[in-house]
Amino acid sequence: MSKALKISVIGAGSATFSLGLVKDLCLTKGLAGSHISFMDIDEERLNMIYKLGTRYAQQIGAALTFDKTTDRQASLQGADFVINTAYVLGHVVEAKMRDRAAEKYGYYHVANHFGRYHQFRLMLDVAQDMEKICPNAWLIQSGNPVFDGCTLMTRETGIKVCGLCHGHYHYREIAQTIGIDPDRVTWQAPGLNHNIWLTHFIYEDKNAYPLIDEWIATKGEEYWRTHLAARTHDAQMSRGAAHQYHLYGLFPIGDTVRHCGWWYHTDIKTKKHWFGEPYGGPDTHIARPVHVAKLEKRIAEMTAWANDPKTDLVKAVGTEKTREQIVPIMDGLTNNNEGYFQVNVPNHGALEGIGDDVVVEVPALVNQKGIQPVHVGALPPKIMFECILPRWLEMERELLAFKTGDKSVLLWDELNHAQTRSYDQALAILEETMNMDEVKQVEDWEKMTRISDYFKFPAKL
Predict the structure, then answer these.
(1) Is 118 a known active-site residue?
(2) Mind listing the domains of the chain with CATH numbers?
(3) Contact at 8 Å (CB) between 175 and 203?
(4) What percent of the chain has pLDDT over 90?
(5) Whether 259 is catalytic
(6) Residue 414 reports pLDDT greater than 90
(7) Can the peptide bond before residue 380 be classed as cis, meaning omega within 30 degrees of 0?
(8) Which residue in the list 35, 91, 166, 259 is annotated as catalytic?
(9) pTM of the entire structure?
């Protein structure tokens, strides 16, 4: 027995999620008859994904229906699930923000966090719209920043929110690299999104960490000397990841690898030492253009498929489900097809030492009762004090800046960046970033653009 749902996809023109979502829905019998409402403000992208979704479903013979709209509130009407994949500024604008922070102000390719304001605004707007239009729906948040945004939405609204990321799947890369079958591994990696740690790594009923130790001791140096990254985010088995493991006693998983410690990121030579050739990890002036070009190439490919009615979409897209958790979680909540998933939900005691109203990334049992986080205990004190708690405080500062409009919080973060050498340097990069045309045109910035008016003090007091 299947149950038809209405699923609203916000930011449907994504290069990553929407087509895979359609495929997974087509291949999930329990959700046959469901209706997908694609919503995006980019009409070209919206038309593209609508054509692809409808044609793929028709070709595979799936009983799905579709609509498309640029009106978010219309898309939310009657929704059972809302999936937010939208990225307001986009990767191209993000790249410009980084470029302006580099040589001109004496930083090496530093990621500016200011774009998060726009994401927070959108996330909260979506959740508040849901409270009015579809208050019983689940919101599945796939667009970053998952940790910060999901914490904001669960604090400010009564909507049921589940954040999802696929970084935890990098445990499979560890298994493959050291020569064991990832499908036979039992694992656990709790923490905060992009800050998760491999607490359990079991193979054939035994702790498999000694196999990691053996690989590092006997094959690590050769791997780090000869391995060329197959993709920009190929850093899970890098020297930097192994170094963090030796520092903290647990292996960092997924994007955790790239975020721990300023000393891994001082310049391109250092980054290549820790994260390998040819990119030096995903956050360099070499890697980011490659990543953006890959996304643009994917969109161009999808657009060509959409505009060519002769394209065999089943052949192009395939008939094997993705590893994304979105559809299996919807199926579990709707049809009681129970399973364990890696989710981002309010803590409520799942991870010790973290507030109940802070969203954590933990395993959870999903069925018709809801999403039920597993109690994972505590992470080692060193990880808590050096990685988890500092990231929690950073999140709180970002939400404080968003909620209050206090520009000094943004400046404080810039002043405390490892590459900042002077007050004026931090002030200048923050002000220029805030005054980018692409940033200002998203919404009115009258009250937040001239931060120098507030923070340029007299030379003599």
Answers:
(1) no
(2) 6-165+295-333 (3.90.1820.10), 168-284 (no CATH), 382-455 (no CATH)
(3) yes
(4) 76
(5) no
(6) no
(7) no
(8) 166
(9) 0.93
